[in-house]
Amino acid sequence: MSLLLTTAVHRCPIEFLLAFSLSLAASCVFPALVYSFLWTGFDRRGQLWLVYGGLSLCTLLTLASPAVSGTIYALLPEQDFNLFPLHTPGLVSVPAAFLLGWLGSARPWERTTHPRHTAPGPTPARSSPGARIDSDEDVVSG
Q1: Which residues contact 108 (CB under 8 A, 6 or more apart)?
Q2: What backbone torsions phi and psi does residue 35 show, to the nearest 5 degrees?
Q3: Which residues, listed in sequence order, are joined to residue 69 by a DSSP beta bridge?
Q4: Is 7's pLDDT higher than 80?
Q5: FRET label pair with 102: which of 22, 38, 49, 74, CA 20 to 30 Å apart?
Q6: What secondary structure letter does DSSP report for 21?
């Protein structure tokens, strides 16, 4: 797969590829690592929101930036259709990815009085040998 990608982009300017890869890593990997190491409430939904939202926002902002058109170091230097003024969209996409990760995990629109739906744990049956018997009588085992 990497050989196919390399042959496909071998004529692209390295500055564009470098800026895009760094912005993508900063938008997807960095917030996910920070949240997973420092926040115990970070869950799968927050991870998905963070990664997919950061990836799509970073890609869209990069395509609308001067890294794609308008400068001599751009992917398409002869055209000028940049809508986003920054060369690297990390200043916008990284905070947005943090926000999306928090929104996905915390879910502030749900009521906090209702507990989250969790699967009930196994309960031991009274007739099983390892079951605890709660009574006031002393149990004599022989």
Answers
A1: none
A2: -65, -40
A3: 76
A4: yes
A5: 22
A6: H
- Which distant-in-sequence residues (6+ apart) come within 8 Å of 72 by Cβ? none
| Cβ atoms of residues 64 and 44 within 8 Å | no
Look at the pTM and tell me if it is higher than 0.90. Answer: no
**Cα 48 to Cα 104: distance, rounded to the nearest angstrom:** 8
* Angle (deg, nearest 10), helices 14-38 and 44-63: 160
Q: 105, 46 in Cβ contact below 8 A? A: yes
- For residues 47 and 101, the answer to whether their CB atoms sit within 8 Å is yes
What is the distance between the alpha carbons of residues 83 and 106, in angstroms, rounded to a whole number?
33
pLDDT digits (tens, 9 = 90+) for 44-102: 999 999 999 999 999 999 888 888 888 887 778 788 887 888 878 889 999 999 999 99
Amino acid identity of 104? G
Q: Is 4 helix (H, G, I), strand (E, B) or coil?
A: helix
Query: Cα(86)–Cα(103) distance, rounded to whole angstroms?
Result: 26
